[in-house]
What we know:
By secondary structure, the protein is an alpha+beta fold. The protein has helices at 2-18, 39-54, 60-73, 83-88, and strands at residues 80-81, 107-113, 125-129, 141-145, 150-153, 161-162. It has one domain (2-162): Roll (Nuclear Transport Factor 2, Chain: A).
Amino acid sequence: MQRFLSTLILAICAPAYAMGWAAPASAPVKSGNALAGGADRCEVVLDTFNKAALGGQIDTAQLTDVVRSLTSRQQLPANFVTKKQARQAGWSPGQSFSDIPALRGKSIGGDHFGNYERRLPREQWKEADLDYRGKKRNAKRLVFAQAGQQYVTVDHYETFHKVPACR
C-alpha cells in the first residue's frame, strides 16, 4: 500500500518538478522512497522530464549521472573528453570513437557552445553529447553553464528544454 501511495504521489507531483516548479513545503519526505531526496529523487525528476518534454528520447540514467556530476563537482563525469583531448588521442571529426582504443566508452563534452542564434540566455555555455554509443554522433546534447543552468536539445540546437533542478 505504501508503494502504491508513493507512486500515486509521484504521478501527481513529478510533472510539477519537470516543469521547474518547487515541491510545496509540506511535500511528504520519507526515507526509503523516491521522495526522500536520496538517490532516486534526481532520477525520478529527470525521468519525468525526459518523458514529458523530450518524448523519452534520452537515456535517463546517463542524464542523471551527468546532471549529478555537474551539480556536485561542477564538472562532467570522467567518460567525457573535449575535442582537443580526442584529437590528441588520434580522433578526427567524422571518425568513430569506437575505432580508437583510447576513446572507447568516451563521449565528447566540455567544449564551448557559441549560442550564436541566441536561443539561450547570455552566458558562457559548454556542451556535452548525450546517448553517444561510439559511432556517428547524434543530435542530442546537454548545454550547461557555470552558474548551473542546463538545457537539453534532441534536434541539434533547434530547440532547448530547461533541465529541472534536482539533487
